[in-house]
Specification:
Radius of gyration: 17 Å
Strand content: 5-15%
CATH class: Alpha Beta
Largest sheet: 5 strands, mixed
Strand order of the largest sheet: 1-4-7-5-6
Number of strands: 7
Structural class: alpha/beta
CATH architecture: Alpha-Beta Complex
Number of helices: 12
Helix content: 40-55%
Shape: globular
Distance between the termini: 14 Å
Number of domains: 1
């Protein structure tokens, strides 16, 4: 039985949802209202911020973006003033090298990214923060809440033993937001030209992309846990994630 609404609508925060409620290993369940994912927060209204603090009771936010521009500074200031811990774990996105590849779906792009050692270390760094109960309830986010957040969610849920079909379902929930966001991005004069020229699949959140990515992790690394161990994770991290997030 679903205890809460998974998707939570805000005035100016897109793609916000709860990662709780999924069946996990050992006949356990991912805890509701402890872990969330979303798009960026810099445009949030005062009402949004009040809801994050009083309704969601947010303790910590992990920003997965690599930029340190005025939008990030505004976001950090708003959250810090509200007493919400703001942490940066910057993942690279759209590197010059990646832009010259012709992938057929985002799953291929995600695999390309996680093969870089520094990217893997960032995933581990983020999971270390998620594993600490004093940081909960916790939100992690990127720009639109699809790619860096999607990869992070996939690793967390995989470590917890959530089935691929549920991880895929969670990923595809970003699709409607992308469809509504794309026209605004393309018409916004502040959107960089290279972003406007990205391949069409870049803006999709398909089940095929996440299914391909999850199967590729097993094919290339054995499992999500083995990948993380290759990039500095200790087994105790997995135990802490289970203890913090499973009921």
């Amino acid at each position: 039985m679903q205890l809460y609404s998974r998707e939570i609508n805000f005035d100016a925060i897109i793609n916000f949802r709860d990662l709780g409620g999924y069946h996990a290993k050992g006949n356990r369940t991912v805890a509701w209202r402890q872990l969330f994912r979303s798009g960026s927060l810099h445009s949030m209204t005062e009402h949004d911020l009040t809801r994050l603090k009083e309704e969601i009771k947010l303790t910590s936010v992990i920003n997965l973006r690599s930029d340190k521009g005025p939008r990030t500074l505004k976001e950090a200031s708003l959250l810090n003033d509200a007493g919400i811990r703001y942490l940066g774990v910057p993942f690279t996105s759209y590197s010059e090298e990646e832009l010259h590849h012709d992938f057929s779906n985002m799953g291929e792009a995600y695999l390309f990214r996680i093969k870089h050692k520094e990217y893997g270390k960032r995933i581990v760094d983020a999971l270390k923060i998620v594993a600490e109960p004093e940081n909960h309830p916790l939100l992690f986010h990127c720009g639109v809440g699809k790619d860096r957040s999607g990869v992070t969610a996939a690793f967390i849920l995989s470590v917890l033993g959530v089935a691929d079909e549920d991880i895929i379902t969670d990923y595809t929930m970003s699709a409607p937001y992308m469809e509504s966001l794309l026209p605004h991005l393309m018409s916004d004069p502040e959107t960089p030209e290279y972003i406007k020229k990205l391949q069409a699949y870049t803006w999709e959140a398909t089940s095929e992309s996440m299914a391909w990515f999850l199967s590729s992790i097993r094919r290339e690394f054995g499992s999500a846990r083995e990948y993380l161990q290759m990039h500095g994770a200790e087994i105790s991290l997995f135990n802490r994630l289970e203890k913090a997030l499973l009921t």
